């Protein structure tokens, strides 16, 4: 995840020797750029933009401007097809009252669907990224349940790095200390997940995170610690496609839990759609009243003192401003409602299918 | 393509007898709804939203509000896996000066990539929809070249319906007659495309379009004529994956042509980004000047007659309005520039790959 295309160009020059192949995924207004550097040729790429990603008017959070999406890069190493997915989900700003949970769940759901549908010809699937979810959160269980991806940290034979594999740690100078007060060791929100599709098995030999600052300097490499995994891929005689079947009752529970959260988000979005729509209508009514009043005054139909010009024009401008702003917000929330409805319905369909064919 | 979810529900009730399985894809603010009705169970679905789709401020064209996207529905009929894609691309309002051509080309490109990446486990691929392109347009050649899809109209053994397979015909009462003046027979912009992926072959036995009005009534079924294809699918011994290889030099030409159009769109978007950005900065400067002036008057620092209050406040409100509007437009065009750049770069990569491995 780099902020600007310039950063990507700089990295490309610096890494060109070891990692001659790279791809930059554009999205959003600023930065956003997911990018991938590879020692092996990149055969193909695809970008999928999540349908929801916070609110443009939450300027202090800024996620909307970064345009969250998932990038797919296809690489072939000694005849084995790797589908490598990179992504960054919406940040969590307040764990107790996480207003963005429904959006992040929609993203996790869309990520899972995208991986399922695009990885059918792959031998090995890898997902790396800042998922902004703790290891036990519903979103990560949903993602893992739907795709069958395994957590490199949990599976690693050897581990080296921050305690508990944390990637957002309090002694990084870019983290906000108060947010990490309940988690003295930090939290693990950056992941490498993997699975083998066809007749391969993947095991994680080693997982490492960076710790602390750049050698010889005072600043850390990034606001998160980096995660590195060494994976061992073995060709084996038979496919293990049926291995995921045992987890289905658990999957139904996770989807139910996620669907509940999406439904909560849906109701909130419907309320906001309603209130912004009402405000737009009220502003329009005020404008109509003013136009009628002005016409009346002009035509000399209304006796007595007309409104003072100043307040009258101020009010008109205010009404126009409120009308435009409320209309834009109404449209935004109308789209949000649709996307949440769509996801909730898809989850309902999956649940029905799970119940019908256990 | 239905306008409202209510229409979908009505259709579902009416078609439930023959087509018990259906799916509705939500996107955009109004309607938008792609929907699919099927005699066979729908196993899985996925929605992909195009990154560009016209401009929200082009209210008279309205495409932006409908949220164009492509829906995938996976169906299995007697053991054969069908990936059925439905879509609707941005309309063409003026063929001579088609401002939406770059957006439509980005959509056609994304559609082709999406089909390629999601159809790897399918036996048969079907694409149906209003592509808003004439049969020889660069977008349809791009789509067909990248995916290997074949045009059911061109391949059909028997054809029945409007002359030349036209689906937008002048004697439909909903079409705008002046737009069709150069095409007295109408135009063919609704397609059924298909291909077989693995060891299957598909042939089109019959293609039909509706003609004219509902029997016994005066109004046509829709603003476009409907297209129906009867396909014959045969299992065959060997795969025919190499058949597309001969068309590669032609593909390079088509991608070059499309890339040129996208580059033209990119320059237009960059110009609009620049002019909206400049307007936002100017409005901000005006506001700053006003604030300085107001503070000066309040502090009694400026001698002489201050501005009349009315014009002063009107100007301030105007400046705020222009600033907000110009900022919103700037953000929109900044995203547009990014998406056009991304597509142009992808096309460049594909061209390089085509030249390196002919």
Automatic annotation (TrEMBL), chains A, B:
The chain crosses the membrane at residues 280-304, 310-332. The keyword Ubl conjugation does not apply. InterPro entries: Endo/exonu/phosph_ase_sf (IPR036691), Endo/exonuclease/phosphatase (IPR005135), Sph/SMPD2-like (IPR038772). It holds the Pfam family Exo_endo_phos. Its EC number is 3.1.4.12. It is a multi-pass membrane protein. Keywords: Hydrolase, Lipid metabolism, Magnesium, Membrane, Metal-binding, Sphingolipid metabolism, Transmembrane, Transmembrane helix. One of its GO terms (cellular component) is membrane. It is an enzyme of class 3 (hydrolase). Its main location: membrane. Pathway: Lipid metabolism; sphingolipid metabolism; Sphingolipid metabolism. It is found in: Membrane. Residues 16-224 form the Endonuclease/exonuclease/phosphatase domain. GO terms for molecular function: metal ion binding; sphingomyelin phosphodiesterase activity. One of its GO terms (biological process) is sphingolipid metabolic process. Belongs to the neutral sphingomyelinase family. PANTHER family: PHOSPHODIESTERASE, PUTATIVE-RELATED (PTHR16320:SF24), SPHINGOMYELINASE FAMILY MEMBER (PTHR16320). This is sphingomyelin phosphodiesterase. It comes from Pterocles burchelli. The lineage of its organism: Eukaryota, Metazoa, Chordata, Craniata, Vertebrata. The gene is Smpd2.
């Amino acid at each position: 995840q780099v902020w600007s295309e310039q950063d990507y160009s700089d990295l490309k020059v610096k890494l060109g020797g070891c990692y001659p192949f790279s791809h930059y995924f554009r999205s959003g207004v600023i930065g956003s750029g997911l990018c991938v550097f590879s020692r092996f040729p990149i055969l193909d790429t695809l970008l999928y933009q999540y349908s929801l990603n916070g609110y443009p008017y939450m300027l202090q959070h800024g996620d909307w401007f970064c345009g969250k999406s998932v990038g797919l890069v296809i690489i072939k190493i000694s005849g084995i097809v790797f589908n490598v997915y990179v992504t960054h989900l919406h940040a969590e700003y307040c764990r107790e009252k996480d207003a963005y949970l429904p959006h992040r769940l929609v993203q996790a759901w869309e990520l899972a669907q995208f991986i399922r549908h695009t990885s059918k010809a792959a031998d090995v699937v890898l997902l790396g990224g800042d998922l902004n979810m703790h290891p036990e959160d519903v979103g990560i269980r949903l993602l893992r349940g739907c795709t069958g991806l395994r957590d490199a940290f949990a599976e690693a034979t050897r581990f080296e790095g921050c305690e508990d594999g944390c990637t957002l740690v309090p002694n990084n100078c870019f983290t906000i200390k108060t947010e990490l007060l309940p988690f003295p060791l930090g939290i693990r929100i950056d992941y490498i997940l993997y699975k083998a599709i066809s007749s391969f098995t993947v095991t994680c030999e080693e997982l490492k995170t960076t710790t602390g600052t750049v050698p010889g300097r005072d600043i850390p490499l990034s606001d998160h610690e980096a995660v590195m995994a060494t994976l061992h891929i073995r060709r084996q005689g038979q496919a293990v496609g049926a291995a995921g079947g045992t987890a289905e009752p658990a999957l139904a529970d996770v989807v139910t839990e996620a669907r509940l959260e999406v439904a909560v988000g849906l109701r909130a979005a419907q309320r906001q759609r309603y209130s912004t729509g009402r405000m737009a209508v009220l502003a329009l009514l005020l404008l109509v009243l003013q136009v009628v009043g002005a016409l009346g005054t002009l035509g000399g139909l209304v006796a007595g003192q007309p409104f003072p010009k100043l307040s009258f024009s101020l009010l008109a401008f205010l009404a126009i401003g409120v009308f435009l702003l409320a209309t834009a917000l109404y449209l935004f929330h109308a789209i949000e409602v649709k996307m949440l409805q769509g996801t909730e319905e898809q989850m309902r369909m999956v649940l029905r299918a799970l119940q019908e064919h256990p």
